[in-house]
Automatic annotation (TrEMBL):
Gene3D superfamilies: Glycogen Phosphorylase B (3.40.50.2000). The keyword Disulfide bond does not apply. Its main location: membrane. It is a peripheral membrane protein. One of its GO terms (cellular component) is plasma membrane. GO terms for biological process: carbohydrate metabolic process; cell division; cell wall organization; peptidoglycan biosynthetic process; regulation of cell shape. Pathway: Cell wall biogenesis; peptidoglycan biosynthesis. It comes from Puniceicoccus vermicola. Residues 6-142 form the Glycosyltransferase family 28 N-terminal domain. This is UDP-N-acetylglucosamine--N-acetylmuramyl-(pentapeptide) pyrophosphoryl-undecaprenol N-acetylglucosamine transferase. The gene is murG.
């Protein structure tokens, strides 16, 4: 019989995308899902493509350091707790799966009080605040390969990687380019900065696009919502060929953009990394230097050690052009990176994660909490 899953995945594309990936897989296996997202513009924009899924918006504010931010966070937390209690009562899920972030806190606390099994997913190679806080309530914790979390029993942890949405797959480059209206031939450099865009990368493209075009590469840049002008620029390269630079805001078809690319320049969000591995796209990663606990640098260094990318610290952005040109001129190096990416991709096993979630649902409520919540006495000889 189908089960009901509540997936808490809003706040950023890096949480929402794997939530959508898991929801679609669960639906295809006959289960029901509701996805909790935030009021942020990026959430509303990303879900437009997935009207067949059931999204529920709840308020919430990310944690900050200034007194005003902390006050706003707690206000948002209590509003989120209230909204979360309503959602849990209405949806009556068999399992809550949370992808971390500020939205998870209230809902997970409330659900675990009701004995509902909790599964947490951490995408990054340094666990975020929400997962560290909530780990003690979890029946299951999904971590990236080799990442450890202190004071968590080994039996709770599974390593299934990052669930990638089903439209991301190895697609013929020319087909993807045709769909995007891009030239079918030639070397395409794709630049993007995760779900919110990256001003530093946009700035680099703005100041270097003519040099890159002149080298013989085309450019496709996904700037992020409200992060600069969209449009097309054409230039003649050093061999007399027309080269094209296209710039867009938010993109609903990142699977096509990645499939169309020869090389990507990106931040080091866990989702972007998993999607580049799935589409077999070599990259130069410039980790966001202010990410909490510098987790993007950890993500990027691990990926680089596996041979999937080159890492460049943002402090050395002036070297990026030379780096890109030297990769462009070295097709053997690109081929080696592609071979590595095919092997790396094996770590992302969405189907195994979903099968495990089904098991968590089949095991039923957390007995001690459940009885406590329902005020039922424990069977004789069993302490609560
Ligand atoms: C600044 C910051 O802290 N960012 C974090 C955030 O990243 P962020 O939200 O940027 O997430 P990722 O890079 O992990 O993934 C971005 C997701 O948004 C999608 N997308 C992006 C742009 C676009 O125009 N259209 C679109 O659909 C991508 O296909 C991808 O699925 O969550 C990730 C997962 O916890 C973390 O690893 C990142 O460090």
């Amino acid at each position: 019989m189908g089960k009901k899953f509540l997936i808490v995945c809003g706040g950023t594309g890096g949480h929402l995308s794997p939530g959508i990936a898991v929801a679609e897989e669960l639906l295809s296996r006959g289960h029901q899902c509701a996805l909790v997202i935030s009021n942020k513009q990026v959430d509303s924009r990303l879900v437009q493509r997935y009207q067949h899924l059931d999204f529920v918006k709840v308020p919430g504010v990310a944690f900050g350091k200034s007194p005003a931010e902390i006050a706003r966070f707690f206000l948002g937390f209590f509003r989120g707790l209230l909204a979360g209690s309503g959602i849990i009562r209405r949806e009556k899920p068999d399992v809550v799966l949370a992808f971390g972030g500020f939205l998870s806190l209230g809902i997970v606390l409330f659900a675990s009080l009701g004995g509902i099994p909790i599964a947490l997913h951490e995408a990054n190679r340094k666990a975020g605040r929400a997962v560290r806080l909530l780990k003690r309530f979890a029946t299951r914790i999904y971590l990236p390969t080799g990442v450890r979390l202190s004071r968590v029993s080994v039996g709770t942890v599974r390593y299934y990687g990052y669930p990638v949405r089903k439209e991301f797959r190895r697609t013929p480059r020319r087909w993807a380019r045709e769909k995007l209206g891009l030239p079918r031939d030639g070397f395409l450099l794709v630049v993007f900065g995760g779900s919110q865009g990256a001003s530093a990368l946009n700035g680099w493209v703005d100041s270097h696009c003519k040099e890159v075009l002149s080298e013989g590469m085309d450019i496709y840049c996904v700037r992020g919502l409200g992060k600069g002008a969209e449009g097309v620029l054409e230039e003649i390269d050093s061999r007399g060929q027309t080269r094209r630079y296209e710039s867009v805001g938010f993109c609903d078809s990142m699977h096509l953009v990645l499939s169309a690319a020869d090389l990507a320049i990106s931040r080091a969000g866990a989702g972007s990394i998993a999607e580049m591995a799935r589409c077999v796209i070599p990259s130069v990663l410039i980790p966001f230097p202010y990410a909490s606990d510098n987790h993007q640098m950890e993500n990027a260094r691990y990926f680089e050690a596996q041979g999937g990318c080159i890492v460049l610290d943002q402090a050395y952005l002036e070297n990026l052009f030379d780096e890109v040109v030297s990769i462009y001129r070295n097709p053997d190096f690109l081929d080696r990176m592609r071979e590595n990416l095919i092997m790396i991709e094996d770590a992302n096993r969405k189907e195994d994660l979903v099968a495990d979630l089904e098991q968590v649902a089949a095991d039923g409520p957390n007995q001690s909490w459940w009885r406590f919540w329902q005020k039922k006495p424990a069977p004789e000889g069993e302490a609560l």
